[in-house]
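Weekly puzzle thread! Below is a chain. First person to post its structure in token form gets bragging rights.
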Amino acid sequence: MIGKLKGLIDSYGEDFVILDVGGVGYQVHCSSRTLQHLPSPGEAAVLSIETYVREDQIKLFGFRTDQEREWFRLLQTVQGVGAKVALAVLGTLAPADLANAIALRDKAAVSRTPGVGPKVAERIVTELKDKAPAFANVDPAVVHLAGAVDDHRAPRPVADAISALVNLGYGQPQAAAAIASASRSAGEGAETAQLIRLGLKELAK
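Winning reply:
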């Protein structure tokens, strides 16, 4: 199995690059994001590789980092997500942004991917929610709160305050982060109105 390729960029296709490794040209399929960050033809490049072997073909998928390759694998554990959809998601969201979106249950961010509808986005967020926090760079308290709201476990004042901020036009992740901070300031037992007021102050910073 091929795990990594180092060579010179020969040429680009619509969704692949030809990488010249010692005179052998490997066709490597990449996300649009990866293709945009690769150098010009004739310059050196290194790609982490995922090798797919089928009865009728061998296909190589290339990634700028091992973490991106790991997300490619993780995405395909979700029902209805194959290699093409996984590459499309990684073309829309960088690995860190994808991790944050899943950790915060931000289905809207995932569904911005061409070809990914609300149902598939919902499955990605739901089925990978336990794996994403390890990669995410958001406050664990916010991740916990986003999960509690999504699972209808959050205290009523907290859920109502987040809902109020969303109705004012803020995104769910923004609203959850602001109210998580407001909850820490106000302490347990804070009323909805107080949380909204403190949340708006957080958002105005």
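Puzzle host: Confirmed. Bonus trivia for everyone else. The radius of gyration is 21 Å.
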